[in-house]
Amino acid sequence: MAEAMRWALLVAGATCALTALACHADSGTPGPAPVDAGVDAPPPDASGGGHDAGVDAGGDGGSPLQPPEEGWVAVSGFYEACQGQALGELAKWPARSWVSCGPGCTASSASTLTGGITERLVSGATGLGEHIYYRSNTRLGDWTYDELRQLPGDEVVAVVRYKNKCLASAIKDDAALIFGAMDGDADWVGVFDPASMKMTMSATPYLLDTEVRRKWWQFDGGWGVLANEQIRLALTPGDATLTVVEPTSSYKSDGRARGGRVCWVDWGTTPSTLRAWTSALGTHTLLDPPANVAGLALGDQLAVWVSATGTNSVIGAFDSARLAWMPVDASPGSAAAVLGPDVTGQIGGGVISATQGMRMAMTANPSSGNKANGTLIFDAASSKQWFVPSPRGTGSEVLAMSASEVLIGEVDLVTLGEYVRYLRLDLSKLDELRIE
């Protein structure tokens, strides 16, 4: 409950703060700058997305859906070369329409902009209680647009744009308000703080030639990045200095955060180890699992993953696989894995997971070659499971889960790099779910 309230306050602050920023940067040096906090943005349109009367909300006919030309305000602290801007009038942003895609399924085009390409690797979501916060990263013309929305009402929370030469963060790791900014061969990372109405950028860049694989996330009290196999956290509010809390060079994956805990999987041991950091305990081993941990996800009640065997488990080639979970607030020493059903042959590739309550959802990477590509949903309370196949020629990636639905990113197996549709699966209709 506390975390759901924290996120409600976070996005409420972002709604007005992102749109009321003024840029006072006089030089090319990235960093926070004071902003005028007295201008409030209009609230999101409660009908589901914010749009002017007469705007074609579906994109299936009428005028092409384009971003508004006016109403953009420079974002304070965003790396200057990227020209970061926030939309001050969210009601001007095109609405998203949802149509039936089968029993218990509704779908929407991934891009709300006609001709836009929604990038798969830097779009994602996080689920908290009754809500899912999801951000679409869409390229159109010379600009990239980050559009943050909240389900189930699909209200627009914030829209930020920046020049195409800049990078956005991957937000599958609970980083909905974190942005990346690239100029030349260097990459800055920044986090927007609605309390101070500033975007604080990293003090030093990450060089792309040595730190190609980066993942960012937020947690209570700070933000962090997995870069060059190190876990680096900004531990002081308002300070962009990153402290290395896990310096080992072993391969790491599945960086996740909930509350004040940051977790990741360390593949330097056999089997892989579940490691964590908190301000009270520092960096520590949370769990020595009975088998490799793949596809870690943290929810309000559970930490879930696939318990896998096989020397190539790190790339999703499992000799055996079982669902596994433990309480999300388990303490080191008392943490123990609960092993669920055998899913060998059902799950493989790059496992992507989400969980909320006692339920979990997982999918296989479309490139894994699994015959049964789709979404596996399991209820740990009832021990029931469901499998929802993807339509032929597409793959499904689990993005987030709330108490009532699962959000899926649908991937074209030919292009792979972009989402084609967003799918919402109704958890009250599990026995009849079908994607068409």
Would you mind describing this structure in some detail?
The protein is mainly beta and 436 residues long. The chain is 4% helix and 43% strand. The strands form seven sheets. Strands 1, 2, 5, 6, 7, 8 and 9 form a seven-stranded antiparallel sheet that branches. A five-stranded antiparallel sheet has the order 3-4-32-31-30, with no helix packed on it. Strands 10, 11, 12 and 13 form a four-stranded antiparallel sheet that branches. A hairpin with a 4-residue loop joins strand 3 and strand 4 (105-109). The two termini are 35 Å apart. The model is unreliable at 1-62 and 208-212 (pLDDT under 50).
What is the gist of this entry?
The protein has 436 residues and is mainly beta. The chain is 4% helix and 43% strand.
Protein traits:
single chain; 436 residues; mainly beta; 7-stranded antiparallel β-sheet; 5-stranded antiparallel β-sheet; 43% strand; globular; disordered N terminus
Oligomer: single chain
- Count of DSSP helices? 1
Q: Class by helix and strand content? A: mainly beta
State the major sheet: 7 strands, antiparallel
What general outline do the C-alpha atoms trace?
Answer: globular
- What share of the residues does DSSP label as strand, in percent? 35-45%
* Alpha-carbon distance between the two ends: 35 Å
Number of strands: 32
Q: Can you give the helix content as a percent range?
A: under 10%
Average pLDDT number: 76
The low-pLDDT segments are 1-62, 208-212
Radius of gyration: 21 Å
